[in-house]
Amino acid sequence: LAIIIEHSRRVVVEQRKATVRLKLSVSTILPTRDNHQDKMATAWISCSVHGPYPPHMVPGGVDSDGAQIFVGRAHHAGDLIPAKVIPDKSAAYVAHGGQETLVDQVEVLVQKQLIWDRATAGQVPLGAIVGGHTSDGEPLYVGRTMHEGSQTVGKVQCSHNCIYIPYGGAEVSVTIYDVLCER
């Protein structure tokens, strides 16, 4: 988020801009990795889990029963957390406090061209999509992993060296995962 700048005053300004950018929510355009917006800008669109859903939602995986999972995020307990959104079930879930938590309101990620890059143990590749943040301001990246036959979206929390996914009523941690990135 921060660009290395020699003059300390400019660094503070850049950090404030980054903080403000993270606190924006509905339909916020995220910066590309070089801090310039391109024609294929990524956006978070607010919606109910009951729909209607916007076009061009970013697929995140497939649930163990074959239902398509899309990338989303939701506010819960003071955090903004990456979520798995399952339109066929009118449901969205976040991983928090050791549990899989059902949420009603989400923001879904829309864009036509993103890639999934493999990562491990709290690492994130260049261009990783920030899906939210903890109440302390730590970034939470959009990730996915396979677990019990389900490719599930969750939050990559670098300080915990893993991805957390909401699955089977629990918050499950996994150390090998994919991270959603702009390229």
List the helices and strands and how they pair.
Elements: H1 8-23, E1 43-48, E2 59-62, E3 68-76, E4 79-86, E5 91-96, E6 99-103, E7 105-110, E8 115-120, E9 130-133, E10 139-147, E11 150-157, E12 162-167, E13 170-174, E14 176-181
Antiparallel strand pairs: 1-7, 2-3, 3-4, 3-7, 4-5, 5-6, 8-14, 9-10, 10-11, 10-14, 11-12, 12-13
Key phrases:
14 strands; mainly beta; disordered N terminus; 9% helix; seven-stranded antiparallel β-sheet; 183 residues
Describe this structure in words.
The chain has one domain. The strands form two sheets. Strands 1, 2, 3, 4, 5, 6 and 7 form a seven-stranded antiparallel beta sheet that branches. Strands 8, 9, 10, 11, 12, 13 and 14 form a seven-stranded antiparallel beta sheet that branches. The chain has one helix spanning 8-23, and strands spanning 43-48, 59-62, 68-76, 79-86, 91-96, 99-103, 105-110, 115-120, 130-133, 139-147, 150-157, 162-167, 170-174, 176-181. It has 183 residues and is mainly β.
